[in-house]
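#structure-requests
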Amino acid sequence: MVTMFISYAIVLHSIVPVRSTPSEAAEQETQLLFGETCVIQEEQDGWYYIRNDYDGQVGWVDCLMVTKMTEQEYREYTASPLDAIVKVPMAYAVSEGNGQTFPLNAGTHLSNYRDGQFSVLGSKFRIDPQMVAQKPLELTKDNFMQTVRFFLNIPYLWGGKNCMGMDCSGFSSIIMSLFGKKILRNAREQATQGTEVGFLEESRCGDLVFFGHITPEQQTKVTHVGILLSPDTVIHCSGRVKAERIDSNGIISSETGRYTHDLLAIRRY
């Protein structure tokens, strides 16, 4: 049975999968992080069709995996400060109400954060302040290198956005969020944002690089994204998060020495 309506929900689990169809067997398209809110547009057989407020992605979530909110709760929560962000691949928050721990992934925004405490819908939590950035990190090469090294070797997972598995655009969106850059979810969409950088020689640390091919119809098809550490080094998630050499043709495999991805564009945010 399909029910059409508009309602609101929040994620109170560390990760919630968003699927292409209302089935546990369906492809995972992305994930929602703890504290993220969404608009419920449809209900079908124990599933919600939602739009994620953070990046606009849509898909199906199990009704049991999100918590519905009243419109007033939704308005108040989305109006609250969300400047603080978990800056390491994994941190743990502790509920002051029942002492339970909650694993929180990098990129998780914390509402009403102050001195190692934050609250969600009236529930209070504690977290190690060293795991949290109270404001976006400054995008300098030193900061960037210190941050991304903790993400090396996270395995590839289609639709993933967490320390146990990420896809290429999940990795780029999480990393850029730590530096205050809000970008869209998938590589094709990310390639429409920012400003173009013409050549690798003009690039700098933190620029996104896009890969793919030109179709027979002369259209650009983006299939992969990475982040430049320097004009000749890219960090990206392909099999796992890793740093590899890049030149004007594309990425050069650290294992085989062959090109694995053809360079299409460089964008700065």
